[in-house]
Amino acid sequence: MTIAEMQAEIIRLKKEKDVCVLAHSYQTRDIIEVADFTGDSYKLSTLAATVKNRAVLMCGVRFMAETVKILSPEKTVYLANPAAGCPMAEQLSEEDIVLLKKKYPGYAVVAYINTTSRLKTHCDVCVTSSSAVEAVRRLPQKDVLFIPDCNLGAYVKRQVPEKNFAFFSGGCPIHARVTARQARAVKEAHPGAPLAVHPECTPEVTALADYVGSTAGIMKFARESDAREMIIGTETSIVQHLAFEFPERRFYALTKELICPNMRLTTLPDVLGTLRGVCGEEIILDAETMDKARKCLDTLKG
Ligand code: 13P
Ligand code: SF4
Asked: Is 119 in the pocket of ligand 2 (CB under 6 A)?
């Protein structure tokens, strides 16, 4: 089948089987084109909760499909490729978080949305990379245990110096490996091009950026900027999406290593196969997990 034939069949099956297809912004163009919604994980799960469809198909990683299921418990939720997981979401076990909470009694436990639903059941507040600074600023507690990404945590700490932070030394293996040296080199190669980076990058890299924000924030920054050239310090799919949106402008990847292998796992044949019922995985969570993780996720409403 060609890409176009496969996309046409996916669009037909979505309708026939009453399925809403979600694609995280790190998915490839062929998948984005057949999705009903594209965006960051929280935006996708809130949008999925508003649609009338019987089922939802998530093209992204496992914690995102779990978030969709928790916010839409009445819908059948599928993950298009069951092998796609976010390594950061699984860096802390339940035993680890129980020990950390003992070590930091009385601290507000703040979970980045990139965590498993089981981990969220132990946390007080959930944040995204867009909401983290404001959410932490609003907390009544002065002491904050921020998990699992210490780079995002360090970024929040710089914006909210009045709080006292404890971190777990986790993070995104893809964003965290970008070096300040690489950032300086790409800036030298493209003088005048603003550098936009994700806060999952290290403090040494975010310190060199003209803009720091979530994937949605970086895309908004690019849309609103009149710069002809821009350097993008997040997953390289964003470079491609911006190039399609603004073909007259130039977007450069901070480094070609900024590729998330888990996000790349999902393919257009996986989307078709899941709709045909030959692959994909239905997300099943027990009632206690759904209930407790939902309380944590509900704090995202602000
Ligand atoms: P956003 O919430 O910025 O979309 O980030 C998701 C992610 O996995 C970043 O690596
Ligand atoms: Fe997880 Fe990093 Fe991949 Fe995002 S880019 S899904 S945080 S491993």
From this structure: no
**Residue 190 tokens, joined:** 């493209």
C-alpha to C-alpha distance for 61 and 245, rounded to whole angstroms = 24
Coil vs helix vs strand at 16: helix
Domain spanning 3-85+263-285: which CATH class is it, in words?
A: alpha beta
| Integer Cα distance of 214 and 42 in angstroms | 12
* The predicted structure's pLDDT at residue 302: 67
CA-to-CA separations, 153 to 59, 64, 221, 244, 249, in angstroms, rounded: 27, 20, 22, 32, 33
CA-closest residue to ligand 2 atom 3: 260
pLDDT tens profile 84-119? 999 999 999 999 999 999 999 999 999 999 999 999
> Which CATH code, of 3.20.20.140, 1.10.10.10, 3.40.50.740, 3.40.50.10800, is assigned to 94-171?
3.40.50.10800
Greater confidence (42 vs 144) lies with 144
What is the reported pLDDT for 298? 92
- The Cα 282–Cα 286 span in angstroms is 13
Task: Give the atom of ligand 2 at the shortest distance from the alpha carbon of 261.
Answer: 3
Domain 178-253 has CATH 3.40.50.10800: yes
Angle (deg, nearest 10), helices 41-50 and 62-71: 30
Residue 138 burial (CB count, 10 A): 12
Specify the DSSP element, H or E, that contains 32: helix 29-32
- Which of 91, 114, 197, 212 most suits a substitution to test ligand 1, by most atoms within 8 Å of the C-beta? 114
Assign 42 a pLDDT band (cuts: 50, 70, 90): confident
